[in-house]
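Sequence in, structure out.
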Amino acid sequence: MKILHTADWHLGKRLDRFSRLEEQVLVMNEIVQIADEQNVDLVLIAGDLFDNFNPGVEAVELFYKTLKRLSLNGKRPVIAISGNHDSPSLINAPDPLARECGIILIGHPKTEIIPFGTEYFNITNSKEGFIELKIHGIDFPVRILHTPFANEIRLKEYFGENKEEEINKVLSQKWKDLADQLCDDSGVNLLTAHLYMNKRGAEVLEEPEGEKPIKIGNADLIFSDCIPEQIQYTALGHLHGFQNIGTKEKPAIYSSSPLCYSFSEAGHTKYVSIIDAEPGKSVTYEKKTLKNGRVLVRKTFTSVEDTVQWLGENPNTFIELTLESETFLTADERRLIYQSHNGIVHLIPKVKNKEFTEEQAHEINLNQNIELLFKDYFKSKNGGQEANEELMNLFNEILNA
C-alpha cells in the first residue's frame, strides 16, 4: 500500500503583516495532486493543522475542502491529529460529519475512535491511542498508534505530576503495550505523533523560529528508542525540515511544513513523504518536492543601487533585507527600496562602525544649545557617526511641535 505523510500546514499563518493564504491554497492543491498521482491509499497529517487556536474562516474552509479532496469524497481514509498550535476541541468538533467523508480527526492524546465503516474502509478495532483500518482492496489491516500534542495541563492529566521523569517512560510503555497486543506482522504498523523527538545523545534539533516551542530543556524531549520495534514507519509533526530521526529500516520522519514560514527556513526545500509499505517488511519512502510558495531570502547589501537591482530581478520572494552603509538611510532611499518590491518583510539599516578614537570621545558640554547637545549625544552613541541633515530636521520638527 501507499501512504502520504504531511504535517505542519499552519493554515492561516502570516509572515509579519503578509498573509500566506494564497500560497497555502496553491500548496494544498499540490498536495492533493501528489496524492492522486501517486494513487495513495491513506493520508496521515501529523498536527499543526492551523496556526492558532482560533483560525479565521478562510483557513478553516481551506482545511475542510482540502481534507475532502484528499479523501476522494470518502474513498481514501485521511487521519489528522492536532499539534501544539491547534485547539483539540476545534479539531474534534466536526468528527461525526467528517467520518461520512472518510476523515478521522483526533484532537486529544487519549482519544478512542468509535468504530465506523464506509463503503471503502472500516475501523475494525479501536482503543485509546490506537485504530486498525481495513481498506477495501488491500488484503491486510493497517494499525496506527496516534499521539496528538498534549500541553502542560493535558500532560499532567495523562502522565501525572512528574511528567519530566514520566513522559518517556509512560509513552514508551503505552506504545509498547498497544504494539505488543495489537501489532503483529500480518498488517502494516504505523505511529503518528506531534512532539519533539530525537535520537538519544544526538545533536539538538532546532525548533522553528517564531513557533511555539515544545522542548523546554529536556522536559518534553522524547527519544526515538521509545518507538516499539513493531512500528515500520513513524509519521511526525512539529519540526519544519524534512529529516529521519529513526533508522533506514524503521524511519521516523519529520515530513516538513509545506511552506517556509520563518526566515530560519530560508532556502529550505519542502516535501511530503510517500511511503510504500507491506506487512513484515521494511518500508521504503520517497521525498516529493513541493514547488509552490514564495521563496524566503535573507540578503545583505552595501549600496541602495545594488539593492534595488536585486529586488527588481527577484519579485516572487519574501525578503529580510540588511543594508550596510556609511550613513543612515534617507527617507527617499527607503521609499525607493520599498517601491521596488512588494515582499520586503524586514528592512534592517546597519551603519558601518567607524573607529571611535579617544580624541573623538571628548567631554560633552551640557551648557550648549539643545541641537548641538543632541548631535554630541548621537555621535557618542553611534561610534562617531554624525547625525545627518534629515535626522536633524526631524529632531527640530519634534522639538518645535
